[in-house]
Amino acid sequence: MARAERGPNGPARRAESGIGMSGTAAVGFDPLAEGFAASPYEQYEQLRDHDPVHRSELLQGWVVTRFEDVGRLLRDTSVSSDIHHATPNPLTIMELELLTEQPRASRTVVLMDDPDHARIRSLMAEPFRPREIEQLRERVTTRIDRAIDRLREQHGGGRAEIDLVGEFAYPLPVEIFSEMLGMPEEDSPRFRYWAQCVARMVDPIMSTAEREECTRGLDDMYAYLEEQVDRKRAHPNDDLLSALVHAEIDGERLSHEDLLAQLVTLYLAGHEPTASLIGAGTLALIREPDQLAHLRQDRDLLRNALSELLRFDGPNHFVRRITTRPTVVGNTDLPGGAVIYASPASANRDPRRWGDDADHVRVDRSDASQHLQFGAGVHACLGSHLARLQAEIAFTAILDRLAHLELAGTPDWGNRMFIRGLTALPIACSIRDRVA
Fold first, then answer.
1. What pLDDT score does 319 carry?
2. Distances 38 to 57, 81, 87, 278, 412 between C-alpha atoms, Å
3. CATH of the domain at 355
4. Residue 116's domain spans which residues?
5. pTM value?
């Protein structure tokens, strides 16, 4: 299969077309198409309507887009997260070769099946339970207040133009998570770059140059974390990393290799969803000003509104699974070893589940919490409570302190397929002082 290389101005264009399984409509999935990064939802709609279990030659697998099918796949314990179960094809062969060169990458909990998955998850779970996360509220609030204070100091209290992603949403979650782990404050910029590398490595399609750069970043991240783990093992403190280093159940602890792999995963999970939700959620509210006004007037809606913003334009667009036996998805028979790309983002816009207003934000939508952004079943996101806490406090600060929000330019979206988010969101606003 031809590799999709990226040019200096973005991804090389490669069209893919196909005939829907019904034979009545030409439907394709092309994440490299013009406009896909800015809005993939038009393609998702076509796939849901005409070919909901679509064979993609580009991905050498099946793209699944309807809510019912995606939800069932995420909960199906017979469907694997381990690429070793896949029938060999050019993409899986290449990935297995890379895992041979970088075997530690396969130790992440998101690529494991039970019983290994359950064992690792149970050892990591305690610090991420709702009660423990709630204890971080004051610390997170202080950090977010300071970030808004810095914006006011830099731009003044009058009308200002800022990049909400670059100056607020993107650096903040890494800083918060690094503080939780007990990492030195001055190393946060390095972790932001490393988290970008990890997020990019998730995508199945990338250029050789990009993969080499991301691999170097990942190597540097592992080396740094190894030093920190050794330090916490010898001199534990009251921080998350010390807790994970010394976590124990029935005399069993995380191995050194497993711990490092989970820390890399946690940086990705603790950063990308929160940063993306703040950026994309703010953009969605600006574009639907009646909903922004509704939320400003009724703050009791905030938690529900966060669920709605995750449903409407959340960051997790695809989850890969592999069938371990013949499986029926929708009306399509898939063999064992089939690679499936299930799309929570498409499922969360499926009008069969959400009604005719699925493509609109409704901050009071009564069932918004049923979205699939944080997964479902045994692989439901371990860090979802932390992401919600950070987003709740961040949006409280935005509503309290960024008045008269307007777009001040064209939003810029990253070109990743699996984890989608804004790289820049130029806005105009008045930055208020702290609420007394």
1. 94
2. 23, 28, 33, 17, 8
3. 1.10.630.10
4. 53-431
5. 0.88
